[in-house]
Specification:
Strand content: 25-35%
Radius of gyration: 19 Å
CATH superfamily of the largest domain: Pseudouridine synthase
Helix content: 10-25%
CATH architecture of the largest domain: 2-Layer Sandwich
Number of helices: 6
Largest sheet: 9 strands, mixed
Length: 225
């Protein structure tokens, strides 16, 4: 059979442990089309909205990539890791003070607006032709140049020591892992990203997203075309 003419925008609800490339590969296998892209990488730890573009829709990827993102994040205070998330190796452990909610909110609000953010050493940024995470794994971690990003809003949804639950609205290129690290450092006890769920990318929300199993089921029924 030839390649099917399925085109358009498909919002996927990415599962944990999958890379964004894994999602694209699974869609290619299900839909039997090769030309598929996405509008913003999610780390394997993260779940939620991954906007994929099928066929000729890949031509608008650069426009959709620029749209703001919205996340629900859990940050574990007191433990810092080399990757800034729960998948990394322990770097430092400190006691978590008895914070008042107002103290945490004040620190979170200090990151709102246009800021200079240093990307995590374990990232896909290229340095002299090699990915930063490749250098970090080889013990050759190189400080990455800070990048200008915009965090429109950080809302504290919950605090039960040592876990913060945050809602973050931010621009393209913002590393929530780095934000978790920076919040922990500013609070004086360190911290890392425990979990992350993207609930919106531009105009596309989690309510519109399909799991890979749903995509498979709908495709078998001929609903996706």
């Amino acid at each position: 059979m030839g390649e099917q003419k399925i085109e358009g925008i498909l919002v996927v609800n990415k599962e944990a442990r999958w890379t964004s490339h894994d999602v694209v590969s699974k869609l290619r296998n299900i839909l039997k089309i090769r030309k598929i892209g996405h509008t913003g990488t999610l780390d394997p730890l993260a779940t939620g909205v991954l906007v994929t573009l099928l066929g000729r829709a890949t031509k608008i990827v650069q426009f959709l990539q620029e749209q703001e993102k919205e996340y629900i994040a859990q940050v574990c205070l007191g433990i810092s890791t080399d990757t800034f998330d729960a998948q990394g190796q322990l770097r430092e452990e400190r006691e978590v003070p008895r914070f008042e909610v107002a103290d945490i909110e004040k620190v979170c609000r200090s990151f709102e607006g246009e800021i200079e953010q240093s990307p995590p050493p374990f990232s896909a940024i290229k340095i002299s032709g090699k990915r930063s995470y490749q250098l970090a794994r080889a013990g050759r971690s190189v400080p990455l140049k800070p990048r200008r990003v915009t965090i429109s809003q950080i809302e504290l949804l919950g605090w039960k020591s040592p876990i913060l639950r945050l809602r973050v609205v931010c621009s393209k290129g913002t590393y929530i892992r780095a934000l978790a690290e920076d919040i922990g450092q500013k609070l004086g006890c360190g911290g890392h990203l425990l979990s992350l769920r993207r609930i919106r990318s531009g105009e596309f929300s989690i309510a519109q997203a399909l799991t890979i199993n749903q995509v498979l089921a709908f495709h078998k029924k001929g609903i996706l075309h």
